[in-house]
Amino acid sequence: MNQTKNKVTRVLAVETSCDDTSVAIVESSGQVLTMVSAHQDLEHAPYGGIVPEIASRNHSLSLLPLIQHCLDKAGLSWSDIQGLAVTNRPGLIGSLIVGIMTLKSISQAYGIPLIGVNHLEGHLLAPFLKDESYLPPADFNYPYIALAVSGGHTSLYWVKGFSDYVVIGSTKDDAAGEAFDKFAKMVGLGYPGGVQVDQCAKLGDKNKFQFPRSLILEDNLMMSFSGLKSAAHRLLEKMPKEQIDSDRNNLCASFQEAIVDVLVSKTLKAAGRYSCNRLVITGGVSANSRLREKFSELLPNYQIVCPPIRYCTDNAAMIGYAGLLRLNRGESNDLLLGPSSQLYEKDFSYDLQ
Fold it and tell me: What is the pTM of this model?
């Protein structure tokens, strides 16, 4: 890893870890000057999930135009950019390669330092982002408990400071977002499933069906959603299609409530264990309206920070802020920077009890 010497005040960042192509320009205060993204839901919808080859191909088509659009929208040129940040782990290898190779080329062409960023670190730092319509609480700072919940990850973190993250709880099997997507297929909803379950649940009775809340009473911070998914499958197998159609909203509301109950319960248990009333909810599933509603009910006993949806789903702004902090610690990467589908051993420490 190389060392950067000059203070970096503005970075251009790229996020291509999965199927969203995102580019942002972020300043050292966490201010997001501009962010532009391209989504691929329509391309993957016929397959009911993300097809890696399609995702990487679409990144290749979208990324350079988005970078130029981002610069133009901010009224900046490459001479105004002091650093480059790109997601290099974890994620789909083909998707990551597109972002990494593109920013490597720009780094070499313009002599701008480059840093590879852990996608999950980006999510953990998302609450510090700000723009014209969003500011985090003025007194928000470390340490805090963070629930990072998405289609690929569901974990609890004790965030003691920048670059000091402890995994204190996690799912033993499926991520919450994956459970939502699989359930959506079971009840005949399209892709992306989690969003559609949320929409249907708003019209349903959350108490109509009883689904299990695995591990919710266990004295630990671990979670499990495979049993919930199996219970839903067994229930739906016994129901005629006509009943599934007529009860779809109630099924979605009841299934969603089971997941939300577990997430909220385990987060509060973590808050008690670490004597911390500062809670962050981030990641794609944090866009779920019922999850946000349940956490908002905890006010004013807890300080709840849930960034706007644009900074919770996969986005380049969070990658830019994390990268900027690392560049200003003297870190940078050379042309050996590569993608990884896994985390690095040094990314987190673990205290799973």
Answer: 0.94
